Amino acid sequence: MRISSSVEYGMRLMVCLARQPEGARLSAEQLSESENVPKDYVDQLLQRLRKAGLVASHRGAAGGYTLARKPSEIPVADVIRAVESRIFEEPCDRFAAGEKDCHHQSACGIKTVWGELGRLIEGYLEDVTLDRLIQPEANVFVLKGGK
């Protein structure tokens, strides 16, 4: 699994917004400057995040962006889906889309490994919410089952 720069930047924007006091708004320019992300890129990401219902935009002199929900109600998985549309792409999915022909589909033992890995990753990212990322002790995350 590769974390794209879009996902990295989108997460940084969301964490920055999550750190703001309730009701505080940040402009795209402020987000761009504080997270060192080009303004055009910030605009694109905010548009995706707004379309997904994760951020709200407010017009006017005191306008800007806020989270659309409480940080505790926004899992990392939702942010990734908003930015990239998928969290984990199984290699076999490329063949199902007709991009290439896989001669191993009927008797492939690896497909179950990719499926389970995808479920584990998505499950973990569903459990990690923005409020956990803004806590000082947030550097320790344990998978369910203590692993």
| Morphology call | elongated
Strand content: 5-15%
The biggest sheet, with number of strands, parallel, antiparallel or mixed sense and barrel status, is: 2 strands, antiparallel
Which CATH class applies here? Answer: Mainly Alpha
Distance between the termini: 19 Å
User: Average pLDDT across residues?
Assistant: 85
> Which regions are unreliable across 5 or more consecutive residues at pLDDT < 50?
none
Radius of gyration, in Å, reads 18 Å
User: What would CATH call the architecture?
Assistant: Orthogonal Bundle
The sequence of SSEs as H and E is HHHEEHHHH
Q: State the helix count.
A: 7
What would you call the quaternary organization?
single chain
Describe this structure in words.
The protein has 147 residues and is mostly helical. It has a single domain (5-133), classed as Orthogonal Bundle (Arc Repressor Mutant, subunit A). Helix content is 49%, strand content 5%. The protein has helices at 5-18, 28-35, 39-51, 76-84, 91-96, 110-127, 130-133; strands spanning 55-58, 64-67. Strands 1-2 form a two-stranded antiparallel ribbon. Strand 1 and strand 2 (64-67) form a beta hairpin. Helix 1 crosses helix 3 (39-51), helix 1 crosses helix 4 (76-84) and helix 2 (28-35) packs across helix 3 (39-51). The chain starts with a helix and ends in a 14-residue tail after the last helix.
